User: Fold this.
Amino acid sequence: GLYHSIFEWFNPLYLQDKANNFTTRRYVDEVYYPQAVELNTLYQPDLIWSDGDWEANSSYWRSPELLAWLYNNGAGSADKLVVNDRWGNENPSI
Assistant:
């Protein structure tokens, strides 16, 4: 399995996006998303535990796009892939 923190607390790009009320997403586009694709391509985990999503919604994190990629052609083990529910702050249990 793979634990992946969505954000880096003090990354300047993340702090800039946060200061912009997540109307920009340089951190996601330049750091998080490419990193997530690389990790999942290299290691092809059967379990992905995403964490650190509570400050922004799934659109900011590009979660629907990433999850679609994982299950359709990205992870290599999509038929047995399990993910948790921490992909955006829309989750009412947070």
Q: What stands out?
A: DSSP finds four helices and three strands in the chain.
